[in-house]
Amino acid sequence: MIVLEQDNLKELLESNKQVIVQYGAGWCGMCRMIKPQFESLSKETDGVTFVYADAEKFPGTREFAEVKNLPTFAGFKDGKLVTNKMGAKKEVIQEVLDAIASH
């Protein structure tokens, strides 16, 4: 899992075929609760780049996925948004992964 340390999400989306992004924030309890599951899935899933983006530190990253609430998971293929879903359940992450795979 890549944790954004700089505002380089655009480059990551362009240089990786399939990407899933968790948008979160330090103050967001639900974001902190789901993050370990997101990280665990990143170790189990081949061919998809997992990225955690702090939407407070890097507000411009929200524009790529029209993020309105946190946590939001967004799936990208070939640099383009496929889907985004809100929620703090492992099933939400899986839905986004499935959407990337089937797109």
Unreliable stretches (pLDDT < 50, length at least 5) are none
Q: Which strand-content bin applies to the residues? A: 25-35%
Gap between N and C termini: 22 Å
Helix fraction? 25-40%
CATH fold field value = Glutaredoxin
Structure class: alpha/beta
Query: Briefly, what CATH class?
Result: Alpha Beta
Largest sheet at a glance? Answer: 5 strands, mixed
Q: Please provide the ordered H/E string of secondary-structure elements.
A: EHEHEEEH
Number of folding domains? Answer: 1
Number of strands: 5
| Radius of gyration, CA atoms, in whole angstroms | 12 Å
Overall 3D form: globular
- Second rung of CATH, namely the architecture: 3-Layer(aba) Sandwich
Secondary structure tally, helices: 3
The overall pLDDT average reads 96
The largest beta-sheet arranges its strands as 1-3-2-4-5
By CATH, the superfamily comes out as Glutaredoxin
Architecture overview:
The protein is α/β, with parallel strands linked by helices and 103 residues long. The chain contains three helices and five strands; from the N terminus they run βαβαβββα. The protein has helices at 9-15, 29-44, 90-102; strands at 2-3, 18-24, 49-54, 72-77, 80-86. A five-stranded mixed beta sheet has the order 1-3-2-4-5, sandwiched between helices. A hairpin with a 2-residue loop joins strand 4 (72-77) and strand 5 (80-86).
Which helices and strands, and how do they pair?
Blueprint lengths: L1 E2 L5 H7 L2 E7 L4 H16 L4 E6 L17 E6 L2 E7 L3 H13 L1
Parallel strand pairs: 1-3, 2-3
Antiparallel strand pairs: 2-4, 4-5
